[in-house]
Amino acid sequence: MGSQDSCNPDCMAEGFLPLQVEEFRKQAHIMVDFIADYYKNIEKYPVCSVVKPGYLLQALPSSAPYHSEPLDDILDDVRRLIMPGITHWLSPNFFAYFPATYSTAGFLGEMLSSSFNVVGFNWLASPAATELETVVMDWLAGLLKLPSSFMFARGNGGGGVIHGTTSEAMLCTVVAARERTLNRIGGTNGGRLVVYASDQTHSTFAKACKLAGIAPTNIRVLPTSANHDFALSPSLVRAAMQADIAAGLVPLYLCATVGTTSSNAVDSVQQLGQVAVKFGAWLHVDAAYAGSACICPEFRPYLDGVELADSLSMSPHKWLLSGLDCCCLWVRNSSALTRALSTNPSYLRNDASESKAVIDYKDWQIGTGRKFRALRLWMVLRSYGVARLQSHIRSDVKLVKRFEGLVEADERFEIITPRRFALVCFRMKVEAGRDGAEANRDLMEAVNRTGKAYMTHTVVGGSYVLRFAVGASLTEERHVDGAWSLVQEKAKELMSRGGLDCGGE
Question: What pairing do the DSSP bridges indicate for beta strands 250-257 and 423-428?
Answer without folding.
Answer: unpaired
